[in-house]
Amino acid sequence: MNKKLFTIIQIAAFLLFIPQEYFYQSGYGGGGNAAGNPNTISRQENMSLIKGGMYKMGRLNKDNDERPIRDITLDNFYMDRVEVTYSEFKDFIDSEKYVTDAEIEGWSWVWRGDKLIRMKGVNWRHDSNGNLINQNGYNHPVIHVSWFDAIVFCNWRSEVFKKEKYYSIDMVDRVVTSTNKEASGYRLPTEAEWEYAARGGHISRNYYFCGSNDVGEVAWHRFNSNNSTQPVATRIANELGIYDMSGNVWEWCFDWYDQNYYSEKEKSNPLGPDTGKFKVLRGGSWHSITERTCEYTLRYWDYPKSRSNKIGFRCAKNYVN
Predict the structure, then answer these.
(1) Is residue 68 reached through a cis peptide bond, with omega within 30 degrees of 0 on the bond before it?
(2) Which of 74, 143, 186, 267 has its CA 20 to 30 A from that of 88?
(3) Nearest 5 degrees, angle CA 266-CA 164-CA 22?
(4) How far apart are CA 255 and CA 26, in angstroms?
(5) What are 203's strand-pairing partners?
(6) Residue 194 — φ and ψ, nearest 5°?
């Protein structure tokens, strides 16, 4: 059978038989601009409802911070099916006149091959090479955004759709003063939620990457990305209809990073340490040179105000009846 035809049949079968409860489409996200007109923003949510349950977080015979494997129990939650795109983030900037950390400080990190360059004048308006985004980049994941930029975006999305904000933010000192864990609004996924969703939730097929054991099927990485981010949802989705949790861009998570956190006792809806120096990143990126970097159990971290051409994010939110 023709390989292309076989792939189309596989995808059609997946969409036909996956339980419809996993697709929730009211709100914001998932592509951003109307076809043919990059200046027309489409505020339509594209989230998967992740049915909660217990799973084994981590992986044996990997890095020390992925062990010990522990049983984690999660409630239902929603997760963006794609990473937040440039067009979505532009909508936020245009609406709020928000100034990102990269704009305030006047630079962002740009990886070129194996060299990390502190490039002046680069911010969310720029692509992987530090050039201004053109229309072809509107459906790429936004990059050069900090953890703080991401949570301000989450609060704005909550305002747009009249949801209760998850974060209380001091915009003068640019810090989170408190969180409302019962809020209906948008937030970053916890590290435990992120891994559970990437695994495929309670219908996981136990792949090594998000949706396949073949990294090239599901991830944009160093050897297929042409040294750049790529449009969202152009690789194969995982069991829950979620894209790009392996590769394309590293994704900010809610949690502070702690190398030994997997030894802690918090195993029901864990939120991570109360304080820390770094925030968790997951998933690998277009720049990843090894398959290992795109495995969903791999833990990475960076300063909350850090940003680069390989870091983006997606949103989650609580399941509220």
Answers:
(1) yes
(2) 74
(3) 65
(4) 27
(5) none
(6) -60, -50
Distance CA 81, CA 23 (A): 9
For 181-222, what is each residue's pLDDT tens digit? 999 999 999 999 999 999 999 999 999 999 999 999 999 999
Quick check: 289 pLDDT over 70? yes
Give the domains, in start order, of the chain with CATH numbers: 23-318 (3.90.1580.10)
Strand ranges, E, within 85-211 = 107-112, 115-120, 167-170, 175-179, 186-187
279 burial (CB, 10 Å; 0-12 / 13-18 / 19+) is buried
Which residue, among 265, 248, 266, 251, has the nearest Cα to 299 in the 3D structure?
251
Q: Tokens 């933010």 correspond to what residue?
A: 169
d(CA 223, CA 209): 16
What residues contact residue 36 under an 8 Å CB cut-off, 6+ apart?
none
pTM, two decimal places: 0.88
Gap between the Cα atoms of 158 and 151, Å rounded: 11
Contact 33, 40 (CB under 8 A): yes
pLDDT of 61 reads: 86
In Å, how far are 41, 59, 61, 71, 174 from 30, measured between CA atoms? 11, 30, 35, 31, 27
CB 31 within 8 A of CB 232: yes
Q: What strand order describes the sheet that includes 300-302? A: 300-302, 279-282, 250-256, 311-312
Which amino acid is located at 303 in the chain?
A: Y
Helix (H, G, I), strand (E, B) or coil at 244: coil
